[in-house]
Amino acid sequence: MRQRVMETEEMTFSRRGRRLIGQEMFKVLERAKDMERRGQHVYHLELGNSCFPPPASVTQATMQALAEGRVGYVSSSGHPDLRAALADRYARHGRSWITEECVVISPANLLINQVLDLIANERDGVVVFTPAFPTYLAAIEHIGLKVKPIALDPENGFHLTRQAIEEAISLKPRVIIVNSANNPTGAVYTKSSLEYLIAQCAEYGIWVLSDETYGELCYRWPYWSVSAMEYERLIVMSSFSKAYSIPGYRTGYALAHPKVARKLSLSCSTLFSCLPSFTQEGCVAAIQAGGAYLDDVRAYYSRMTEHCADMINQSNILSCTIPESAFYLFISIHNTHLCGQEFCNRALEEWQIALTPGRSFGLSFESFVRASVSGPEKEVLEGIKRLVQFSQEVSHERPWVPQSSKRLRKVSHAV
Fold first, then answer.
1. Could you tell me where the beta strands, DSSP code E, fall in 94-196?
2. Same-domain check for residues 114 and 242
3. What is the DSSP string of 291-360?
4. Which of 180, 255, 185 lies closest to 222 in space, CA to CA?
5. Is residue 256, in this structure, part of any structural domain at all?
6. 314 in the same domain as 282
7. DSSP string, 19-38
8. Domain boundary residue among 289, 317, 341?
9. What is the pLDDT of residue 305?
């Protein structure tokens, strides 16, 4: 009898379980991998998976830790050597408030959930400047908070403006999430804009989560981190995944007031106990490698993004701004007359190009897609070439009238 009930009874989940939406780019990856298992060649432009090998010292330190049997538990806050190395690096750049007790090691993607879970109650408002990294939107939905999106303008390169900040403050949110350098646009916000944001949030007691994962990949002008400002309700997060080409290490970190850091440590202890010692020791080596390796990575992605953006903009159909950091192109497909989801579906099925639809980064961006140019150069260039050809093909399916107001252009640094 019980078996029959289990077979016919509708399975129900908690409200939080029903609110899980995940990340669209991983759904695209799964479809692409299924196509590859059937013998098709797919051009992967959906995920920021670097083609660069990590610094040799990183893998050497990791393997040495494994060889010497360092596979046990460490502090939930993170390996003391890694926390000390991070505190020292920021202190050397004038961030005197950052000490070891301000640093917590955790997977960067998970930190978004952890922070929001700690500082916001159900139905509290969270401002997100869009287009935004999809995990912000997924985490807000999962925890039961209320997203308050503010769309940034493609005409100024998706830069954060004083007007957007004042609109954010007027919404009286509990939290504001800011992402500079930005995923998916590659925009790097100005020092004056970020200082104004923090000053306004301090005046009104609003929490700020600053995601600086791509800060070290800024290649058009010096990067400025809000960690330069002391504010008790400021949490800065970053990751080793992108700059050091080790996404599989799943190692990120948060910088916060010691009271906040202690709560984050309790969250780590509850959710996953601690991260592996051997990967954290590899990250210590990454910090020490720094300089020359990052110079090479930045130079490569600067060249690749500019070259691929030129290919896109010369198509006379697609358009995008030239990024200032990272390895993504946020591409307007307006002139193809397809929505982002249909465009991505057809690009994958008909041309074997894996892309992420713009709607994943905010509902206002239905006529955009994101392409990652972080993969092997030959594959990326062929993928972008095929993307242009596909867009030219579909644009002829319906009457096409160029609309310059929807075209993106290279812009100067926003003030």
1. 103-106, 125-130, 146-151, 175-179
2. yes
3. HHHHHHHHHHHHHHHHHHHHHHHTTSS-EEPPPSBSSEEEEE-GGGT--HHHHHHHHHHHH-EE-EEGGG
4. 180
5. yes
6. no
7. T----HHHHHHHHHHHHHHT
8. 289
9. 96
**Residue 232 confidence (pLDDT):** 95
Please, are residues 322 and 312 in contact by the beta-carbon 8 Å criterion? Answer: no
Cβ neighbours of residue 222 closer than 8 Å, sequence gap 6 or more: none
Low-confidence ranges of the chain (pLDDT < 70): 1-10, 398-415
Q: What span, in angstroms and rounded, lies between the C-alpha atoms of 92 and 30? A: 43
Provide the residue type at 70 as one letter.
R
Given this model, what pLDDT does residue 405 score?
Answer: 37
Same domain, 324 and 270: no
Model confidence, pTM: 0.90
Residue 91: φ, ψ to 5°: -60, -40
d(CA 99, CA 88): 8
> Which residues lie below 8 Å from residue 379, measured CB to CB, with a gap of 6+?
43, 44
pLDDT score for 80: 97
What is the number of structural domains in the chain?
A: 2
User: Of the candidates 289, 324, 356, which is a domain's last residue?
Assistant: 289
* Residues 282 and 359 placed together within one structural domain of the fold: no
Nearest-Å Rg of the Cα atoms of the chain is 22
Q: What pLDDT was estimated at residue 72?
A: 94
145 and 268 belong to one structural domain = yes
**Do 171 and 261 have their domain in common?**
yes
Reference 127, options 151, 157, 110; nearest CA is 151
Q: Does 212 lie in the same domain as 132?
A: yes
Q: Are residues 198 and 149 in the same domain?
A: yes
Q: What is the pLDDT of residue 264?
A: 97
SS3 211: strand
Q: If DSSP codes are grouped into helix, strand and coil, which group holds residue 372?
A: strand
First to last CA, the chain: 70
How many Cβ atoms from other residues are within 10 Å of residue 185's Cβ?
29
What is the CATH number for 359?
3.90.1150.10
Nearest to 181 by CA among 324, 321, 371: 324
pLDDT of residue 412: 38
The parent domain of residue 342 ranges over: 21-52+293-406
Look up residue 30 and give its two tokens.
């799964």
